[in-house]
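Good morning,

Attaching, inline, the backbone tokens for the sequence recovery test we're adding to the shared suite. The designed sequence is right after.
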């Protein structure tokens, strides 16, 4: 089975001129599950952004599902809504309700009818413990509620690749339990790939990935 992601000789330079990665070759196998760790500025979020096509490498290329990511060129994997991108602030539209945020990709990427999309979205918001707030807008942009709702959105659209950053505001017990439910259900599909930054509470999900000093490797830093 081909890798779902490949970074080929990727160099990424931070705005201040520091090399986050230099000539990095790294692959992510389809169906792999990793919880990544690294220090501040070590490249965890940068790696997620490269994999999601949000950050562009200064050199090299990122290949997603067999097709290179190219600036300004629609990518079939992304167009089909197969990427579950969960940034640290949740990435929700603050002018939409939680329900509308989850419904939106179902309507336009999955082409579901309104009623089916709303029914699916409500089911996942219930798993997230947010069904009673479904008609309300995100309380505070970037809070844990937005992050958990973003997990529900990724699950609702049947994401095949999950790229999940650590939440900006930390997690309470209820949020951890909701995340465990959602990610645990996603992991039941052996072809779903999950790369989670932080999340020691999900250490049972898969292998440890260490990111730092311009390198990415399984296990602890040698």
């Amino acid at each position: 089975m081909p890798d779902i992601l490949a970074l080929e000789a990727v160099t990424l330079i931070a705005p201040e001129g520091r090399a986050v990665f230099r000539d990095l070759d790294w692959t992510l196998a389809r169906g792999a599950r990793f919880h990544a760790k690294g220090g501040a500025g070590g490249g965890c979020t940068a790696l997620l952004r490269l994999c999601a096509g949000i950050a562009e490498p200064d050199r090299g290329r990122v290949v997603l599902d067999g097709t290179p990511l190219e600036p300004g060129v629609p990518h079939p994997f992304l167009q089909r809504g197969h990427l579950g991108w969960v940034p640290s602030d949740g990435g929700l539209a603050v002018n939409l309700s939680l329900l509308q945020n989850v419904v939106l990709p179902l309507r336009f990427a999955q082409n579901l009818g309104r009623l089916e999309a709303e029914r699916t979205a409500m089911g996942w918001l219930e798993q997230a413990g947010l069904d009673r707030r479904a008609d309300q807008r995100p309380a505070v942009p970037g809070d844990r509620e937005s992050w958990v709702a973003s997990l529900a959105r990724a699950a609702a659209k049947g994401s095949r690749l999950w790229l999940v950053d650590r939440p900006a505001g930390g997690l309470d017990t209820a949020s951890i339990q909701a995340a465990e439910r959602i990610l645990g259900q996603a992991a039941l599909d052996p072809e779903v790939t999950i790369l989670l930054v932080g999340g020691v509470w999900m250490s049972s999900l898969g292998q440890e990935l260490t990111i730092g000093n311009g390198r990415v490797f399984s296990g602890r830093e040698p």
